[in-house]
Amino acid sequence: MATKTNPFTFLQQVRSEVGKVSWPTRRETMISTIMVFVMVAFAAAFFFVADQLLGFLVGYVMSAGR
């Protein structure tokens, strides 16, 4: 079982660990954000086209039985 740490010691440890984090620069954050938006746009376009194609194919198959 883990030992309990008092809140003051815990906050000191948290501050020490946060100091070790390598934070991204503003430029890196902007590039990553733009890349996320680009990939979301590509995924949305892909799924839109796939949905339209599958809808057309299902409609074609369903109408062929008439």
Word description of this protein:
The protein has a domain at 26-66. It is built from two helices and no strands. The chain is an all-alpha fold. The protein is elongated, with a radius of gyration of 26 Å. The chain crosses the membrane at residues 34-61. Essential subunit of the Sec protein translocation channel SecYEG. Clamps together the 2 halves of SecY. May contact the channel plug during translocation.
Main traits of this protein?
mainly alpha; 0% strand; elongated; protein transmembrane transporter activity; SecE_sf; Protein translocase subunit SecE; transmembrane helix; transport
Q: pLDDT below 50 for ≥5 consecutive residues: which ranges?
A: none
Mean of the pLDDT scores?
A: 92
SSE pattern = HH
The end-to-end distance, rounded to whole angstroms, is 70 Å
Assess the beta-strand content as a share of residues: under 5%
Inertia-based shape: elongated
Radius of gyration: 26 Å
Percent helix among the residues?
over 70%
Largest sheet: none
**DSSP, total strands:** 0
If helices are DSSP runs of H or I spanning 4 or more residues, what is the number of helices? 2
- Give the helix/strand class: mainly alpha
What does the secondary structure layout of this molecule look like, with pairings?
Elements: H1 7-19, H2 26-64
Quick overview of this protein structure:
Keywords: Cell membrane, Membrane, Protein transport, Translocation, Transmembrane, Transmembrane helix, Transport. With 66 residues, the chain is mainly α.
